[in-house]
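sry for the spam today, last one i promise. struct tokens for design, 217 residues
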């Protein structure tokens, strides 16, 4: 006889509004413990610093994870101009600084360059596997891998506003594998201004949206 699974045979989806801080795996394990579920998994990793929609599948629903992983995703994010970092977000070490800042028209003029089927270089600090090792593990060991450009699909990219000279708020609707941190870095590079992602929030994954989500609390 096989070993009996611990926990209850819970099946279904939980649309979690993940807070910034914990990893996606930590959030899944917390929900699994709260529901005493036998089996759980998530559809689409969120960076620890990112918040928002993290669909979590339990039991029989885990068989459908691949379908949701491929679904369209929506992000709202803030770009911080004037500084680039090793991680392409606010956690990394500073690589370059500049006193230059864009105006809204500068940003909107180039957004078409990042819309449609594009090639994107993922951040060195990412979960992508390089020769069997996670890229972020190599980067943390002081051996940042050379990341190769990959095709991604951006359906829509728009500027929501600039609350001050240093920051721009944008919204993106995109396909699987698109990195917001890379987009922030590349927009800055095209403007000739060092930049990184300051805040990231995922507002939708497929048909799962904020209105149907629940917090850990």
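last one done:
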């Amino acid at each position: 006889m096989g070993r009996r699974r611990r926990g209850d045979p819970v099946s279904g989806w939980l649309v979690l509004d993940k807070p910034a801080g914990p990893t996606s795996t930590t959030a899944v394990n917390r929900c699994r413990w709260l529901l005493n579920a036998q089996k759980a998994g998530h559809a689409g990793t969120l960076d620890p610093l990112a918040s928002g929609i993290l669909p979590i599948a339990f039991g029989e629903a885990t068989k459908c994870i691949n379908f949701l992983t491929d679904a369209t995703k929506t992000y709202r994010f803030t770009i911080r101009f004037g500084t680039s970092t090793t991680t392409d977000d606010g956690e990394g070490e500073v690589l370059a600084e500049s006193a230059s800042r864009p105006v809204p028209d500068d940003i909107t003029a180039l957004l078409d360059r990042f819309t449609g089927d594009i090639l994107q270089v993922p951040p060195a600090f990412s979960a992508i596997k390089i020769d069997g090792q996670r890229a972020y593990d190599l980067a943390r060991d002081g051996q940042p891998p050379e990341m190769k450009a990959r095709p991604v699909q951006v359906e829509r990219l728009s500027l929501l506003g600039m609350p001050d000279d240093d920051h721009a708020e944008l919204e993106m609707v995109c396909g699987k594998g698109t990195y917001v941190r890379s987009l922030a870095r590349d927009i800055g590079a095209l403007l000739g201004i060092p930049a990184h992602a300051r805040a990231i929030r995922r507002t939708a994954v497929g048909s799962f949206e904020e209105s149907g989500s629940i917090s850990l609390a």
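The chain has a mean pLDDT of 90. ok im logging off now
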